[in-house]
């Protein structure tokens, strides 16, 4: 299983803050789950607290975080 966490506005957008999903081979394949259909393509992704891209390989028990892009000055 993969432990998925949503941060900031993605909690309201997706309708949950945490979710358990079945293991997928890559982060990109995990993100095709229908519950994540509203996730914008520019979302920041992290696996086990390290930034990742959609080609990142997943392992059972990984934590995936979905974060909106940030800006500041």
Record keyword descriptors for this entry:
73 residues; alpha+beta; Ubiquitin-like (UB roll); five-stranded mixed beta sheet; 5 strands; 14% helix; 29% strand
Walk me through the structure.
By secondary structure, the protein is α+β, with helices and mostly antiparallel strands. Helices cover 14% and strands 29% of the residues. It has one domain: Roll (Ubiquitin-like (UB roll)). The protein has helices at 9-14, 27-30, and strands at 2-6, 18-21, 44-47, 50-52, 63-67. The chain has a 5-stranded mixed sheet. The longest helix is centred in the first third of the chain and has 6 residues, at 9-14. The radius of gyration is 11 Å and the shape is globular. The termini are far apart.
The CATH superfamily appears as Beta-grasp domain
Query: What is the general shape?
Result: globular
Q: For the largest sheet, list the strands in their spatial order.
A: 2-1-5-3-4
Strand content: 25-35%
CATH class identity: Alpha Beta
CATH architectural category: Roll
Average predicted local confidence, pLDDT: 95
Q: Which helices and strands occur, and which strands form pairs?
A:
Blueprint: E1 2-6, H1 9-14, E2 18-21, H2 27-30, E3 44-47, E4 50-52, E5 63-67
Parallel strand pairs: 1-5
Antiparallel strand pairs: 1-2, 3-4, 3-5
Quick description:
The chain has 73 residues and is of the alpha+beta class. It is 14% helix and 29% strand. The chain has helices spanning 9-14, 27-30, and strands spanning 2-6, 18-21, 44-47, 50-52, 63-67.
């Amino acid at each position: 299983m993969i432990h998925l966490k949503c941060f900031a506005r993605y909690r309201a957008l997706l309708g949950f803050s945490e979710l358990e999903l079945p293991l997928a081979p890559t982060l990109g394949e995990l993100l095709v789950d229908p519950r994540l259909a509203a996730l914008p393509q520019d979302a920041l992704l992290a696996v086990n607290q390290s930034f990742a891209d959609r080609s990142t390989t997943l392992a059972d028990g990984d934590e995936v975080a979905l974060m909106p892009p940030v800006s500041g000055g």
